[in-house]
Amino acid sequence: MSNTAWHDIISPMLEQRDTKPRKRGINMILDTGLGRRLTEDILEISGHLIDHWKMGFGTSVFVSADLIKKKNWLLAEHGILTYPGGTLLEVALLEHHCRVYMHSARELGFQAVEVSDGTIPLPAHRRERIIQCAKNAGLTVVTEVGKKDPENQPTASQLASQALQDFEWGADWVIVEGRESGISVGIYDEQGNVQASAVDEIHTITNKYADRLIWEAPLKKQQSYLIEAMGANVSLGNVKPEQVLAVEALRAGLRFETLHSISERLIRRGTWNPDEIEKPLGISITAEKKFNQ
């Protein structure tokens, strides 16, 4: 990112951030209906910051196959992994064999699929077989743990155990359910606040796989909390396409929510003193001493 604007000014803050292609710090976009031109606009400004692109729930059903293929080709050109929402797979499983679905996904140019049981019941043996079905089709497997019904929420321990099992079955990434609202689901309470104990428990149980968790976090306060708790390279999902730069600003400490803690930490360490006067530019140390006499 050495050619970005202001690089010479803020490069130390950006150095903590992994760059594409990366195995952590994923930005997953939730696309609920962007046309090709809008997609091109998003890619022009932030394609280098986007890793996964999910065409949410069943929205891709209403788009022509030709357009889906063109979008997937365009996104692949920018090194972005694409997949339809897991709800679409759940619907398909009601009437079709998983191989039919995986074949259709490949035909449409998707590089991955999301496997979930957010709405329908899916016994463990079927979930495992579907993961293998996707892998046999040459697709990257992204699973999702959690339920969409606020009245039927698994515990943090259950979410973590399912994620761990999915990884052991061969999942490449696991999404922690947060929906597009971020309210009363997964690790969020009825106000959309992060339940810290749930995050800690999931992170601890998943252990060596923790970097491959993608936390759906549609709200700024959720993104801020997770970045503060787990660092700039935590993977975040359900990011609005137009908010990618704003999320990266949070990661880099370029917004109040994360900058204030950075400045406080530097002051405590004694590595930055707000009272210290800046040194003159372009003057040698000897000349500077004379200047200050």
Low-confidence blocks of residues? 283-293
Q: Count of DSSP helices?
A: 12
Q: Which range does the strand content fall in?
A: 5-15%
Q: Describe the main β-sheet briefly.
A: 8 strands, parallel
Provide the gyration radius in Å: 22 Å
What's the rounded overall pLDDT mean?
A: 90
| Cα separation of the termini | 41 Å
Proportion of residues in helical segments: 40-55%
- What's the arrangement of strands in the largest beta sheet? 3-2-1-8-7-6-5-4
What's the count of strands?
8
Structural class: alpha/beta
Shape: globular
Q: How is this structure best described in words?
A:
With 293 residues, the protein is α/β, with parallel strands linked by helices. The chain is globular and about 70 Å long. The two termini are 41 Å apart. Helix 3 links the parallel strand 2 (52-55) and strand 3. The relative contact order is 0.12. The longest helix is centred in the middle third of the chain and has 14 residues, at 156-169. The protein contains twelve helices and eight strands. Helices cover 44% and strands 12% of the residues. It has an eight-stranded parallel sheet with strand order 3-2-1-8-7-6-5-4. Helix 2 (36-46) runs parallel beside helix 3 and helix 7 packs parallel to helix 8 (196-206). It has helices at residues 7-14, 36-46, 65-77, 86-93, 98-107, 124-136, 156-169, 196-206, 220-230, 244-251, 256-269, 285-292; strands at 27-31, 52-55, 81-84, 112-115, 140-145, 173-176, 213-216, 235-239.
